[in-house]
Specification:
heterodimer; A: 112 residues; six-stranded mixed β-sheet; five-stranded antiparallel β-sheet; 57% strand; B: 114 residues; seven-stranded mixed β-sheet; 11 strands; globular
Chain lengths: 112, 114
Amino acid sequence: KQEVTQIPAALSVPEGENLVLNCSFTDSAIYNLQWFRQDPGKGLTSLLLIQSSQREQTSGRLNASLDKSSGRSTLYIAASQPGDSATYLCAVVTDSWGKLQFGAGTQVVVTP
Amino acid sequence: NAGVMQNPRHLVRRRGQEARLRCSPMKGHSHVYWYRQLPEEGLKFMVYLQKENIIDESGMPKERFSAEFPKEGPSILRIQQVVRGDSAAYFCASFSGGSYNEQFFGPGTRLTVL
């Protein structure tokens, strides 16, 4: 049974510092992995999607890596800003129907 | 190009009433997923639908919950005889059906059962 874990559960950094968010999964047979951002009381915004055949994806200040063999993904956010404060969720797809299985998230606070 | 739309955004029901949640996918998307986020819990898959078909309902509670995605109109998640434990945020996500499978989420419906 697939389990998705995100550590730490919460993180506070000063503005300008780089953020490193971790996601691990127990079953390496995934189709893809997706990182999302969720602001309080709001929906999810897709940040990056990494296909199982890919090692990383980049978008602006965001970079996500995927190591299927070790069951890990890391989301890097360079030069953090207060606007990056949110909960970050990772999710994997492990069946052909495409349903996402989520981690519990990492709550990030970037202090000015 | 409008994103995924959900309505209502907030819904209050008394125990025993029915709740109907609507989801309009992105233009060109014919696949819809529903997820539930209970207080202090993570997001959990409920059901996956394509137009006029339920493909995977393995996450749906066996009783009181049903979903549909008709040929015309939005997808509907229906909860009959709501109980306090149904209070949660319900999100739908859509994707186009291609191999890339990136899901785009709506803003959610926050259901409160009194």
